[in-house]
Structures are given as structure tokens and as C-alpha cells.
Amino acid sequence: MFYIVEFYETQEVEVVPAAWVADDVCQWPTYYKPDELAKAIKNEEQPGDSWEEYRVRILYKAASYKAARLKLPEAETHTDLQTAEEDDDMPRRKRKRNVIGGVDIKDTVWRIMKHLFTNSLAKQLNWRGVNGKTAFHSLQLKDVITGTVRNNHLTATATDQEVEAYIKRWLHLAGDRDGGRREREEKRRASQHTRPQEDEQ
Q1: Last residue of a domain, one of 51, 83, 115
Q2: 3-state SS of the chain?
Q3: Which domain covers residue 162, as residue numbers?
Q4: Residue 54 in domain
Q5: How far apart are CA 135 and CA 132, in angstroms?
Q6: Number of structural domains in the chain
Q7: Which of 18, 52, 83 is the last residue of a domain?
Q8: Are 77 and 138 contacting, i.e. CB atoms less than 8 angstroms apart?
Q9: Residue 198 within any structural domain of the chain
Q10: Which of 44, 83, 171, 187 is the most interior residue, by most CB within 10 Å?
Q11: At what angle are helices 141-151 and 160-172 packed, to 10 degrees?
């Protein structure tokens, strides 16, 4: 059994084994590296004596880790998944989390960027503002994202350089999302297909 829980202190949302939660308190291995943490969660590792305790609220219960992970994006936009269907008419922005969870810096930054920007808007941005695009590094939003990443207790020590690197990478890949890569590949193949016919003429 797995739970999706919200940490009261930071409002982060994460998937954890049910064995880690009792009486609205979640035991958490704060000293684990991201890969160790992911493995511990998937394998339902038993909490150790040195694990720290955090107050949480259970948002959703699932029989498997995979099922819980599939519900996680929805949990980040709903205050309570069990009653989410009842309030689907509420403006989605009002249900956004102040802090978006993530197991490492990349995961956290990319989740934040995905919630803040549509892909069409992301295509109009790059870090330096070259090629007529808007310069992301000059936006105050950059500092907001860095602060949000550091509010996650798993990424509290993230440096400005690390956050910036993942923002740059996410923006760079905007053209590949929503079928962009496939569309470019199809155009390239079409171009190669028509070129021999032009040569024959």
C-alpha cells in the first residue's frame, strides 16, 4: 500500500509507503541520496531509528507504487484527491501547490516549469534572449523558482547554478515536446523524399 501525502510544513506532495505513515506523521530518511530514496520508496523499506518525522495529510491511497505515481500530478493540483471530482469546476490555478515536490533538483525544477509555462510559451523563451526570444535570466520569476526549489527539503541545498542549468535545459527542449521532435523528423523525411524528384527534373 502506498499513500500520496502532503507535508504540512512545506506543502510538498510525495508518494510514500503506507508503512512510513502513522497518526498523520511520516517518517522520512532525510540523509538518503535521491536514488537511494527512490529505491527505498519503491521497495517499501522499513523506517529506521534515525529517520526524521514530519506531520502530513494523506491525500490518496493506492495499492501499488505505479498507481500512486500516476495520481501524483493530479495530487499537485488538488487539495484532496478523494473529493477532486466534486470540485472540478473550481479554477485550476486556485488549487495549485505553493511548493511542488520532487525527488531531486532536476525533477523539482522541471515540475515547477511545467506548471508555470505552457509549451507554446516556453518556445518563446531562452536563457539569454537570443534569436528574438524573451530572456528568461532577466525575469524575477527566476528567483521565485530558485526559492521554491529550496523550500523542498530534498533540494534545500540547491545552488543557483544547478537550478539555472535545469531551467536552461527545460527551455531548450521545448521544441521537442508536444510532438515537436516528430514533426521535425517528418519534415526532414519529406524534404529528403522530394529532393530526388527535383534532381530528376
Answers
A1: 83
A2: CEEEEEECCCCCEEEEEHHHEECCEEEECCCCCHHHHHHHHHCCCCCCCCCEEEEEEEEEEECCHHHHHHHHHHHCCCCCHHHHHHHCCCCHHHHCCCCCCCCCHHHHHHHHHHHHCCHHHHCCEECCCCCCCEEHHHCCHHHHHHHHHHHCCCCCCCCHHHHHHHHHHHHHHHHHCCCHHHHHHHHHHHHHHHHHHHHHC
A3: 105-180
A4: yes
A5: 9
A6: 2
A7: 83
A8: no
A9: no
A10: 171
A11: 110
Residue 123 domain flag: yes
Predicted confidence pLDDT, tens digits, the chain (201 residues):
999 998 887 777 889 999 999 999 999 988 888 788 889 999 999 999 999 999 999 988 999 999 888 887 777 665 444 444 444 443 433 334 445 678 889 999 998 888 888 888 888 888 888 877 888 888 888 888 888 888 888 888 999 999 999 999 999 888 777 665 556 566 666 666 555 555 555
